Amino acid sequence: MAMAARLLRRTLRATEVAPRFLSASYGLVQRAAYASGGIVDVGQPTPQSHPELLADGEITPGISKEEYISRRKKLLEVLPEKSLAIIASAGQQMMTDVVPYPFRQNGDYLYITGCMQPGGVAVLSEETGLCMFMPDTDKEDVVWQGQTAGVDAAVEFFKADKAFPLSHMQKILPEMIERSKGVYHNVKTSSSSYKNLDAFRRASLNNKVKDLTYYTDELRWIKSKAEIKLMRESASIVSQSLLQTMLLSRTHKEESQLAAKIEYECKMRGAQRMAFHPVVGGGANASVIHYSRNDRKIKTGDLLLMDVGCEYHGYLSDLTRTWPPCGRFSPAQEELYSLILETNKECIKLCKPGTSINEIHSHSVKMLIKGFQELGILEKGKSIQYNYLNPTAIGHSLGMDIHDSVTLPKDKPLEPGVVITIEPGVYIPPAPILNESAPGRYRGIGIRIEDEVLVTEDGHELLTASVPKEISHLTTLMSMGSEPAADGHELRAACS
């Protein structure tokens, strides 16, 4: 009943013109702020509220206001003349009618504004600079959800040139659209708040509306020094956390336990969330590329594949290792693992300015086809069957999203400051699927070895080098400090 009454009151208030907005220019300036001990709460960490996270002059941890302003200028420079860019924030997704999922901001909106809260729309043009339309909030919203950024915060903290309440966008944005020669917006994350405007619909009918994503992907392709520092830390967090989880796998055999362990370790080291739901696949589950159930017990002698990543202040990591928790590879497992490891290392060597992801992928396919044929997994002359063993690309760009800058061509030459993954693998299900065929000893084996690579001026830097992947290192790690098993034998003897 309380929730229903609250929703009714909010609906009634939404039909009124709130007196707290004062007209200036277009200027509807919201005068509402919450302060505790002299510190203004803008709905996310600031240097004043969280000095342990942000230095003076930073809008988000590690990223200064100058860098955000520079990003906006660069976007306007690459867009056609007299363009208008509209970037909507992510919306709040709900588990049920009143229970929200944890919120994660849209990458483009965060990249341009630094605002980590839902509901806003950013508009960028040469004429107005950055104009932010901020969600309307009231005292009851604050009681239930906490303080959020308003118009004042948009100008004073996020350094927007203009700011208005979202409820007034329909009065202001149409004229901006009419004056522009082209309207660019993020098609995949567009919002009905502006798409339903008559001016936007007319612009769309007149072919004035285009996708902004290619331009923002181009800007996000090369990371700044500040971004690289955050990505190094994200990679370090997940690397240390996976190492701890690998050690735990010697004694804890439930996939769910290891999924919980990696998340715990990442968050204890400062990550805000996981980059994606961890893949924890024991045995045949590892042959499912995006396995996510994590509900089985890992059997003695099985390999364990874990594909994990975390988010550190907006920047993601992505790492995969495959190892035998019992401490030893079987002959068939070792044959396949050695091939994937060799491919991983050879492809990492190719990561340098001028090379493309496509070139590296082609090299990996040649290596794996040759190796699969030598092992009798792939018949000679039937290389088309390769895709049944490994349908994935060798890697992808990484940054604020796991698959970052996805609209850019895969033959785009790598440049210093680009971060990519290198992740060869093989996925052989317990029973044949479609035209795939493999000897019985390889059935039910899935292996992937994934690393993060930063392209540098003279080559590359391996961001996940601290996590073991050599066979000798893995077997030593799994045997270190072996504890007695329930039957009195050491863990390393459990493979037999």
From TrEMBL:
Record GO terms (molecular function): hydrolase activity; metal ion binding
Gene3D superfamilies in alphabetical order: Creatinase/methionine aminopeptidase superfamily (3.90.230.10), Creatinase/prolidase N-terminal domain (3.40.350.10)
Family the UniProt entry places it in: Belongs to the peptidase M24B family.
Protein name (database record): Aminopeptidase P N-terminal domain-containing protein
Keywords for the protein's UniProt record, in alphabetical order: Hydrolase, Manganese, Metal-binding
Record-linked InterPro entries: Aminopep_P_N (IPR007865), Creatin/AminoP/Spt16_N (IPR029149), Creatinase/aminopeptidase-like (IPR036005), Pept_M24 (IPR000994), Pept_M24_MAP (IPR001714), X-Pro_dipept-like (IPR052433)
Aminopeptidase P N-terminal domain segment(s): 63-194
Organism lineage string: Eukaryota, Viridiplantae, Streptophyta, Embryophyta, Tracheophyta
Top-level taxon of the source organism: Eukaryota
Source species of the chain: Urochloa decumbens
Requisite cofactors: Mn(2+)
